[in-house]
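Ticket reopened. Same input as before:
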Amino acid sequence: MQNMNKDIQEILFDEEQLRQMTQTVARQINADYSGQSLVVIGVLKGSFLFLADLFRQLTADCRIDFIAASSYGASTTSSGNVRIIKDIHMDVSNKHVLLVEDILDTGSTLSYLTEYISQKGAQTVRICTLLDKPSRRTKPVQADYAGAVIPDYFVVGYGLDYDERYRNLPYIGILKPEIYTK
Ligand code: IMP
Ligand code: MG
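Engineering reply: fixed in the latest deploy. New output:
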């Protein structure tokens, strides 16, 4: 941990702030899906901690599955070429689906996944993201639920990685640029 903390320039959201953001989002989702069935699809891997905390606060009749898409590698910008590397197993036809993501950046991943899940016959597809970086959007996609909107920082922790590291930091921090520019 010592090792990782020194790579962080600034803590953006501490554990208490993350707890409050998750609770606010859960309340909105609970109000919108009250009395309905919902299929929650976690976008791996970055959403796993947020989703673990969010999921147990949801009060609708929920099912869960996971999907993984790739467009990154060891880089801080998306290549834009999205590919599914792990598909869902659940039948989503005529279901209300909520895609849960760690961060909505260019929008490539979520515009692709929204279309992909819609084509499987979902009745509705909405997006819940912990963080939203709208300034970098290249695809017309919007979050239905967002924990926080942030400027164009590259952030890690609470599930988010740089080159598969830092996911286990309990907070969200801005990664020092020298880590990814060297
Ligand atoms: P998009 O397809 O460009 O919207 O990128 C979405 C994916 O890029 C997210 O699921 C993250 O895995 C990754 N990503 C974008 N911004 C960041 C960041 O600041 N930190 C860590 N991962 C990020
Ligand atoms: Mg991700």
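The beta strands are 8-13, 37-44, 61-70, 83-86, 96-104, 124-132, 145-149, 155-156, 172-175. Residues 46, 71-72, 78, 101-110, 154-156, 160 surround inosinic acid (ligand 1) (CB under 6 Å). Please confirm and we'll close it.
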